[in-house]
């Protein structure tokens, strides 16, 4: 592990000193803006992005690259985490939420990001109030077609308005993302509506409703939650919570497109599970994406 970190550190340092490598090749000179002020912070972020040892969800993780796409979205930047422009944007975010504006990623910054994303999930807010939302009436549920279901775990139903929004989102992704266009598995659903009684029976049988592996009151009971295939690390499965598996998923073009665009169709992410998205309704500014 230590040798791997040394290699990773050297590779990251080389990329930074070379001017950002791929980012520069994509015309990212703007991401080097503010270099005189933010170069030190960019250097610190470049190291910790892969080398930070921490446990944001109870299990040890190395680095915070898993959360970079979500953080970029929140900061309103596509600059990579090892750039001065990212550090400047991060300092602005920290200022907005009464944190010390260091421009360096830290755990208090992560907790603010996590809180913001959780607050955008009505289901989470209901659970904070100790409420468990009722499932929708059956006449509000619609059937998925075969091409929308992932073979790893077949599901059948979703609330009709959510299904419509999902289909519009997938059509847009196919038009805009080669990875999705060329792989029919991408964005297929492997879990949609789950009947609360069936979920309770499964909890009892498998004895794993501990709030981490499976929730006693799941957002899937609402018919608004979808688990989407966004890729997988060989041998770990489509919904593996292993830190390496989640990191792999979040670096895929499919996931990165979702982070940038799912809100256009009314979907918000769950920070811990790259595959899990919840429908909260069309954006208020305009009824359709």
Give me the secondary-structure topology.
Elements: H1 2-17, H2 22-25, H3 35-51, E1 53-54, E2 61-62, H4 68-75, H5 84-96, H6 107-119, H7 122-128, E3 141-143, E4 157-159, H8 160-176, H9 178-182, E5 189-191, H10 196-206, E6 225-228, H11 243-250, H12 253-261, E7 267-270, E8 273-279
Antiparallel strand pairs: 1-2, 3-4, 5-6, 6-8, 7-8
Please give the order of strands in the largest beta sheet.
5-6-8-7
Number of helices: 12
Major sheet description: 4 strands, antiparallel
Q: Pick out the low-confidence regions.
A: 1-24
Distance between the termini: 45 Å
Tell me the Rg in angstroms: 20 Å
Summarize the structure.
Helices cover 44% and strands 10% of the residues. It is an alpha+beta fold and 289 residues long. The strands form 3 sheets. Strands 5-6-8-7 form a 4-stranded antiparallel β-sheet. A two-stranded antiparallel sheet has the order 1-2.
How would you characterize the overall build of this protein?
By secondary structure, the chain is α+β, with helices and mostly antiparallel strands. The chain has helices spanning 2-17, 22-25, 35-51, 68-75, 84-96, 107-119, 122-128, 160-176, 178-182, 196-206, 243-250, 253-261; strands at residues 53-54, 61-62, 141-143, 157-159, 189-191, 225-228, 267-270, 273-279. It is built from twelve helices and eight strands. The strands form three sheets. A four-stranded antiparallel β-sheet has the order 5-6-8-7. The radius of gyration is 20 Å and the shape is globular.
